[in-house]
Please model this.
Amino acid sequence: MNKLRYYITKLLQPISHELPFYIIFTLFTSLPGIILFLFQNGNVPLVILIRRVLTLLCMPAFLAYLFSFILYRTKSILLRTFFYGFSILLFTFNIYLIWQFGTMISPWILLLLFETNSREAIEFIQQNLFSASFLCTCLIFVFVCLLVLLAEKRTHSVRCKDLLLICTIPFHIIGFYLTILLFFSLTIRDQYKLEMWYGGHGQYSTMNTFGNLIYSINHLIIAGKENQIAIRNSINASKEYVEYKGEDSLNIILIIGESYNKYHASIYGYSLPTTPNMEKEQSMGNLFVFTDAISPYNITSLAMKNMISTNSLSKGEVWYEKPAFPIFFKKAGFCVFFWDNQKPSSDTSFYDFSLGSYLYNSQTISLTYSQFNDKTYPYDHLLFQSFVREAKMDKLNLCIFHLMGQHSAAGKRFPHNKDYQHFHSHDVKRSDLSEQERQNIADYDNATFYNDQVIASVIDYFRSQNSVIIYLSDHGEEVYDYRHFLGRSHELNKSPNAIKYQYDIPMMIWFSEQYKKNHPDIVKAVRHNATLHFESDNLPFLLFSLAQI
Model:
């Protein structure tokens, strides 16, 4: 027992000798992540808050121990200055970003830094030099430096109780695991594997300033390589000849939903009436429902990239090897409109960066779209209303709407009034679920009902014209369908049920009376093929057929 205590004491000796450094480094590395979590989750339950804070402390505590060990063994003033300087700069920069933009360092921020020229840098400094956030950050920086100087005045060892030091061991063990996990991510060379890594336990390695910086740089490098190939292919495609064989006026409308569990749609047999408008259009012979459509990914960015790109996964083609399909519509004489309610900005997540850096690349955006929305909206019907007000349509139009749909926290995806609070927890007949879980299902069903209303609004707007509307979702979502789980999982070996609910997607095609009259052969083909297997990465070829390009 004495021997064990001796080894533990020796193992933790760097902390007792470098206690000021250990505490300050741990705080500097973890505090921005904790602040951001509190900023984004104001009403989180206390138990979840404590658990998240403890998790956020693990990797910083291990790194602090690692660097304390190096300082304890080397006694290097140069290394001490570097460790302090690096952690202070990272801390203050992240605090400024959270204050000013609501984000820590992200791939977007790094991209902006790398693409900023000297003139833009000078203008930014001039605009922000005397802003409240910048001045306060400077004060924080000065305060932190003074704190370090005061702490380091104690050059002798700080005696600690053994029990207090032993309490740090679980943090170091978990932190060691998270650090290994982070450096494993550096071996990943494509965005799909990186995002699968992040969607699993990897995200816990990025909730501190050090891990966040490493991951952001790696993500930017990988995305940059793939995007450059995609951009080059799209630019080359814009020089190709494209032939349109259709009539003088035509509207092709693509509506891309989000996180849509088709088994919660009454048009697919769900017990609650969540899709009355679609069922009405189906009974009128205007709408055809595809019964075997799937998404190749349960991640929005990758599902969207493969829908927008003209690759085919079944042929072994990856998304960045082929150009984006809107370019061909634009070359054929169509006005291309992209109204995106998930349009990313500089304060977005890693997933949003991965997609946004492709959809809104400065080199291809003018080749791809005629017009796109400037801002996003809390509800999808407001997005469509902005399209009606702002879009300058012509005779040939491709209109793409990317909705928020039933995105996570489905209770926030519909207006909370009597028109859309259609279902309640007592409507969900599931005795195996808690009251809160039943309410979560009711919220999801209300979001599905609201989504049905949004689609109906789009149909009504284009009903009197020569129009065809395609609706499909980026991926599915679990909604307590067979287990106590809400959302999507990222384990490598999914169960058949997980695959069913996360990858099966709703898909429908609606025709106006004029389009049905002009193209009875296409309508007949859609009716005949609606029961066949369809994968969403082949969407562009369906659109080309419907538009006769």
User: Anything to note?
Assistant: The longest strand covers residues 250-257. The chain has 23 helices and eleven strands. The longest helix spans residues 46-74.
